[in-house]
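TOKENISED FOLD:
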Amino acid sequence: MTDRFTASDPVRRRLRRLSRGERLDEAIAFLRQFARENDVAPTALRDRERAVRAAVRRHGHYVHTAQELAFGARLAWRNHAQCSGRLTWKSLRVVDRRDVRDPEAILARTLDDLAAAVGDGRIRASISIFAPATETTLPATFDSVQLFQYAGYARPDGSVLGDRAGIEPTRTAERLGWRRPDVPGAFDLLPVTIRDERGARHAFELPAATAREVTIAHPTLPGLRDLGLRWYGVPSVTNMVLSIGGIDYPCAPFNGHYVATEIASRNLTDAGRYDLLEPVARALGIAVGDGSRSLWRDTALTELNRAVLHSFDRDGIRIADHHEVSAQHMEFARQEQRAGRAVSGEWSWVVPPQASAACPTFHLPMRNLHAVPNFYHTRASGGGALRIDRTYLRDGKWTHRWERMKRRVRDWRRRRDHLWQR
């Protein structure tokens, strides 16, 4: 078996680097937060802390109970600053798949869990949690950014057919044996890439029906249908690391439901994606040659959002509009404040790209608190900034060496000042 405990391993490079002391700090802080929010008896908490300390000292790792895992996943969603749909964080469906390790089985279980979450189209937020990383082992994990992703074909003249974000994933899939269709299209579903426990990558083609693709049509302007636009019905993120109490789960695919602006105002129209704003405007009969004062881009984006909402509603697939999700975020912020908790948020992610100033979140001050538990992409992009709430450690001796040193210096200065005052 290949030794993956190396700095060059791509999955290992993504993960946070915690000492055993730091891991133990996060574990104890999480256990105390779990006990506080779930009414755990003090004696049970002390016993659990004692067992976790012994496990981390001996192995550098400990195992979450099923209840801790479920609470940690929901708490990670509550803490994640880049999500605007956290109002229903308590209802996140958590599926414990830590015993599944084979790549093919991981994909099969992920698809099963997604089908259960989607149901008849109402879509419940769900996460499937597979084996965690340890100091000496790495589990199989997804290489693909999302379960569903469209191909991007770079042409010799510099143009692109399909999704520009899919160019490199398409090349990777072809190196792993995938063959593009005889007549490539703009919306060809890519296979899913999974890296096994030895680090080898495998590509698996998905049954087309699992994507629940929606054909985009405008409710009153028939010209848009001629562009042949479509999008998959459920966003399923597969490349984020779930971090709970010092333990990282690099394979934890989760799904929610779409906000229309994600598809209409970003995926289909961003210059780095499909870049279809001008073709959409022409298909809708909007003049594009009158300069910026005509606001043709604004009109086209609004009508494309109407089309996406209409199309998902027509097919019975749950989707939200940006005003609805902004109102939900404001209610989430109010609930958190009533509970005495600070709300973490990133303005550029929470505020919608469409009609931003008309949404209440536009005027809401936000700060990313980087609290754990949480989700992150890599150690360099978010993971390295994660930190614990030290209020849960004030009564314990399990603090970082640097924190202990600062406390000793502070105490020494207080004694010195007291002697001088005498």
Observations:
- Residues 396-400 have pLDDT under 50 and may be disordered.
- The chain has twelve helices and 16 strands.
- The radius of gyration is 24 Å.
